[in-house]
Write a structure and sequence with these properties.
15% strand; alpha/beta
């Protein structure tokens, strides 16, 4: 049986991907930056490069994403791509971000281009903003104040459920029909944050509102939360792109690849409603 390595296996997308692959009968090796706690885990630190060779030993395919908190994604991902070449990896699926291909000098795009030129069998997936951000990154304001506090104006985003990203990644890892292609992944609708707040209010029974803040306030909040300054600036910058309308586009990639329509925001809100109470 083929073995698939999942980088970021304990994260939002990675944990769902592990489940999706196992449901398809695949053997999964979970990469972790923490000391392994089970036989299916292998230590791997993309920041230091520790564990790369061992993690790829005996692996047929891999899913790769950049660890959060770092802006030099091309360096962290590039080291893995080089190790995958040396190991003769059969296939690599890289998760980037929607819009990364707009700038050839952007770190994620540089990693994409390195993968494309590597000689490896590859796919790239570029998801839009995750629905799951609302019960992770933006959770505190919603739970404690009943507010979504973001500098995004009335712009819309075609938010995607991380479980749908995982389903796409699983299909690409297992099947070869779409090798050498990149896909922008979105949900089925584009919502502004007032509409998101209304959906969360309806599903939780709470009064949740969207309050626009300034980019300066957002940056101060990110820094106060302990984010590295360069990463806080990066997040603030891409939130600015959201406000400019770059997150509104909708694609059919999820349905095309998985055969199932992507989850709506209301589906996500119902499934995770307890998070905001």
């Amino acid at each position: 049986m083929s073995k698939i390595l999942v980088v970021g296996a304990n994260g939002t997308v990675g944990s769902s991907l592990v489940k999706a692959l196992r449901l398809r009968g695949r053997q999964v090796l979970r990469a972790t930056s923490r000391p392994p706690a089970s036989a299916d885990e292998v230590p791997l630190n993309l920041v230091t490069g520790a564990g790369l060779t061992a993690a790829l030993h005996g692996v047929d395919a891999a899913f790769l994403l950049a660890p959060p908190g770092h802006v030099n994604q091309h360096v962290l991902l590039g080291g893995f791509i080089e190790a995958a070449q040396a190991a003769g990896l059969g296939k690599l699926v890289l998760m980037s971000a929607m819009g990364a291909d707009a700038d050839p000098t952007a770190p994620l795009r540089r990693a994409e281009l390195q993968l494309e030129a590597s000689g490896l069998a590859w796919n790239v997936i570029r998801p839009n903003w995750f629905m799951q951000n609302f019960h992770t990154f933006w959770l505190h304001g919603i739970r404690e104040q009943g507010q979504i506090l973001l500098p995004t104006g009335d712009a819309r985003g075609s938010f995607i459920d991380a479980r749908d990203i995982a389903e796409v990644a699983a299909e690409l890892l297992i099947h070869d029909q779409r090798l050498g292609q990149a896909f922008d992944l979105t949900g089925p609708e584009a919502l502004n944050h007032d509409e998101v707040a209304a959906l969360l209010s309806r599903e939780t029974g709470r009064d949740i509102r969207y309050t626009e803040i300034t980019a300066e306030q957002m940056l101060s909040g990110l820094l106060a939360a302990g984010l590295p300054p360069d990463y806080a600036v990066f997040l603030n910058q891409i939130l600015g792109y959201f406000k400019l309308g770059y997150a509104e586009r909708i694609t059919d990639a999820v349905a095309t690849i998985t055969g199932q329509p992507p989850r709506r925001f209301v589906d996500y809100a119902r499934d995770f409603g307890a998070a905001w109470i």
